[in-house]
Design a protein that fits this description.
Number of helices: 2
Structural class: mainly beta
Protein name: DUF2283 domain-containing protein
Order of helices and strands: EEEEEHHEEEEE
Radius of gyration: 14 Å
Pfam families: DUF2283
InterPro entries: DUF2283
Distance between the termini: 12 Å
Largest sheet: 10 strands, mixed
């Protein structure tokens, strides 16, 4: 698989979506973007993971539907002042991929993370 792929896992009990870079990067630190979103970075300050708490509320779907997330895309844009995320996901309904409304987030770049922009494919584990 390609290095521009994030693997997605869902913790049903705690309603948390995890996204991790497929390639095994060495974790360095996390940035709390808001009360529900945490981004992990490697030693080069490149994003390697994302955690979304209260995922069913954020995506406005039922928890059992999140278990059927099939694929998606994640756009990350970091500049001097902000960190922007746009995450679009699809769920499987009657054996058909059905997109749900994307989640967008803009937060402050409090740790002065270097400029970074990437489009990543998201795949369930």
């Amino acid at each position: 698989m390609d290095e521009n792929i994030m693997l997605m896992e869902y913790d049903y009990e705690n309603d948390i979506l995890f996204f991790n870079a497929e390639k095994n990067y060495e974790y360095e630190f996390s940035e709390i973007l808001d009360e529900s979103i945490v981004m992990d970075f490697n030693k080069y300050k490149a994003p390697i993971g994302l955690e979304i708490s209260n995922a069913s509320k954020i995506f406005k779907v039922k928890k059992f539907q999140i278990k059927h997330f099939s694929s998606g895309d994640l756009h990350i844009c970091i500049n001097k002042n902000s960190i922007k995320l746009k995450l679009g996901l699809s769920i499987t309904v009657h054996e058909k991929n059905t997109p749900i409304p994307p989640m967008s987030f803009v937060g402050e770049n409090n740790l002065n993370i270097p400029t970074f922009e990437s489009d990543l494919a998201v795949s369930s584990v």
